[in-house]
Amino acid sequence: MSNHLADAISPYLRSHADNPVAWFGWGSEAFVEARLRDLPVLVSIGYSTCHWCHVMARESFSDPELADYLNRHFVSIKVDREEHPEVDASYLAAASAFVGGLGWPLNVFVTPDGQAFYAGTYFPPLPLPGHPSFRQVLEAVTDAWTNRRAEVTASASLVAETLAAAAARQGAGGALPGPAALDRVQAELVGLEDPRFGGFGGAPKFPVAPVLGFLLGRPGVVGQVPEAQALALRTLKRMGASPLRDPVEGGFFRYAVNRDWSDPHYERMLYDNAQLLDLYTQAWQLTGEKWAQTVAEGVAGFLTTVLRLPGGGFASAQDSESTVAGRRVEGLYYTLDEDARRQEEPPALDEKVLTGWNGLAIRALARAGFALADPDLTTAAARAADHLLTRHLRRDGSLVRASIAGRTSAAQATLEDFGMCAQGLLELALATGEVRYATAARRLIDGTLGGTDAKTVPSATDIPGSGTPGTNAPTDAAGTAGTAGTVAGGMPFRAPDGPDPLLAAQGLALDVDPSEGAYPSGITATAEAANLLYLLTADDRYRAAAVAAMAALAERALERPLAFGAALRLSGILTGPVEQLVVVGADVVGPGAGPDAAAPEQPAALLDAVRRRGSGLVASVTEVQAQAFADAGFELFRGRVAHQGLPTAYLCRDFVCRLPVTDPADLPMA
């Protein structure tokens, strides 16, 4: 029996290629082998920067004696959760039936039909008080499979049936949470704040960027800093000055073991740093304070100097471990000063380019580049976007989930890839005035709606609680279940290629994975992109789809706000007033022409004022670019010109537009 991982796309899988375990990658071949040999399957899931995944690989999967037992009694599959998020989500759901406190590595024992009957996370090589060794677990599973097969298969079938029933209930229509419900959630989150160190709860402590995004956007009493916003700003300021952030290279680590943000787990994730860049940019826009700008610029520097790859895309993560002074150890590199680091090999990058996570980075860099007047950040966003459009967008409109060094993964793109990529492209279009990014984003979202013109989704006025803001107020509780605004009786959005084919064949595919936490779900990301398209095109079907998606998540989001920050944030946007601001500059001929390239005699004060607006839709274009947007069907730009050759701002609220202004003093505060 041989190991099958040497040629894998995933660096995580390749790191197990020299294990004595006869690993298979994710695919049908392993399950065929299991049926032929009448053996259970071990599905072991992790990712390349996971510390305890490394530990278990060294302690157990590199042990020849243990590997021999595995190879004789199991068929073993190694999965990179970042490459196959649907596989991870499905088996996490199944594993929750057997164990709490789930994480990675995730080790799930399944039948040859893929049904889970036991699971756990890290297992030590030797027994510890209350924790069996991995060998003991393997022997117990073998005994159950050999001597109590009927019990095993019955348990597996029951778990599968329970998950299928839960999936059938998922996506039922309802109503958006109203202001009172969101206020109650806000109060709950305020009550969870750690008043001494910031953040939420005790240890371990995570940034929970989506929740901070929700709080930053909450309204308050006119003339006062909203309570929720003040909480988010306190937490961001404390995190930025804490050990969770690397002061040399500027990036944030994944989480801290201790309540005071000390003793980090030193992996640095693209999704964390992209979202935190956006939050610190917003913090600067709201406060104008130096701490927020400093941290934002530091995170942007980490993205563009450490995680950016030669082709323009961004690596998914940087490892926590590296070799320093001949010793391989977690975190030691990050204790060195800048000069000492130059003498050492930095921790390895996981150079997978993930479409969705790159979309998060494109969005954050585009917004930061505009707000901070830093064209280098906008250029970095554009390079990454062009890389995705060239390498990850196929001619038929489908997306590549992951690639590395020019090689493409066979894993199917998920809804998060479409939604996050579209978000990034739309924000880049608004920052650069390049309509091609907006049209590409529109094609992606149209694909998730099941048709190129979104005809599968009814008008927003057909959905309870989803009318134009201010004209049809939502209720505070989930409404009666229904299918308005959805396709196939479920969510309005679907990844065009459908679910993972092997999971689907086994009946294990989640219809749509609603789970959030560290970053938005594919549902929420796609819904937010759709709503942004609505604000640009005035096509109500996009907003209707966004409303239907968030209404379907409302109940669980209100019950578990720490786990659904992004959904709560978008629900607040959908139920609040809408502001659209377009600044049009005169066209400049020659090198450097673009929306930021005002002629020397044109005052820059208006654009400077607009850069500080952290909420609503903000676009900066030239007259020619505005016309190109209008010609492409983005109605917000129709008739927008620069009056008397001066930069001109058009401010609309709920699609009711004020007279254009050229003096920043005439522009109402956000």
Oligomer: single chain
Structural class comes to: alpha+beta
**Relative helix content:** 40-55%
What strand order characterises the main sheet? 1-3-2-4-5
Task: Put the structure in a nutshell.
Helix content is 43%, strand content 10%. It is an alpha+beta fold and 670 residues long.
Keywords:
single chain; alpha+beta; 23 helices; 5-stranded mixed sheet; 4-stranded mixed sheet; 670 residues
Tell me about this structure:
This protein is α+β, with helices and mostly antiparallel strands and 670 residues long. The protein contains 23 helices and 19 strands. The strands form six sheets. It has a five-stranded mixed beta sheet, with helices on both faces. Helix 20 crosses helix 21 (565-575). The chain is globular and about 85 Å long. The chain starts with 10 loop residues before the first helix and ends in a 13-residue tail after the last strand.
